[in-house]
Amino acid sequence: MTEKPYNQVHPAAQFFIFIGIFLMILFAGNLIGLGIVRAVYGLNTVMDIAALKMNSPHLINALWIIQIAGTTFPIFAAPVFFSYVIVRDPDDYIKPSFRLHWTLFALVFLVMVFSNPVIEVLSNINQKMHLPSFLSGVQKWMEDSEKSAQKITEVMLQMKTIWDMIIDVLLIGLLTAIVEEFMFRGVLQTIFVRWTRNHHVAIWITAILFSAFHIEFFGFLPRLMLGVLFGYFVAWSGSIWPAIWAHFLNNGAAVVATYLFQHKIIKANPDDQHLFNAAGYIISLLIMLFLLFIYRRKAYEKRQITEY
Predict the structure, then answer these.
(1) Residues 32 and 180 in one domain
(2) Which among 165, 279, 285, 189 is positioned nearest to 237, based on CA atoms?
């Protein structure tokens, strides 16, 4: 009796297999990261991180070690291992093909530019959302968690020189975009497409998981919208790279804007969510939808030519 290939196993089983692999690598990665920090900087630095002591002398380097070993590496290793070793079908589960027209990348750039007002209005809506009174304890926990995460982010985004900015663009912009898209729009979206047999449902489920994964309740809606955009970029083109490009543009622009604001080159605070008015929201939404329509048509034309 021959063994059934894992890519023919029910998608629900594939999902739980993948989650199990990811959690194991995540656990190992965090242990390795903490071990490196302890070996290099000592136990006191580990304790400072746990206590969020922002004046710790080695805090920034230690946070980056834990981030890369405990989060970035697992998010990359799990989908690569699952695609190449478990299901042995990276072309379908990661979609690394470059067989797409360059105009799609230009369209993605424009979509991301005109999505900014829409993201802003979703952020404003999200900020005003509150849980019912009987869940006030949960609400406070979420607010405290986000404040702690914001402190850590601010520490990690301290950029004294332009080289610091370039490194952060590569790490936060490019590397994060690659690993998260491999995991979410690659493996997970593929699994949900097979599971639900509906691309739209799969894209929205994956986007919900993508947003929830970041554990930022007050940034859930804008990140959900980004996840949906990334999902359609992949579904229509058949390639992971338009989503990686879009993800990089979003993250990289945030890093550059933060650097410029820190050095008083620009006055607009990147965290300010009141840069546009109602007319800007409506116009940007209409333009974004039109660009998505053009992207979809161009992507399908290229796929039909390639398949032919």
Answers:
(1) no
(2) 189
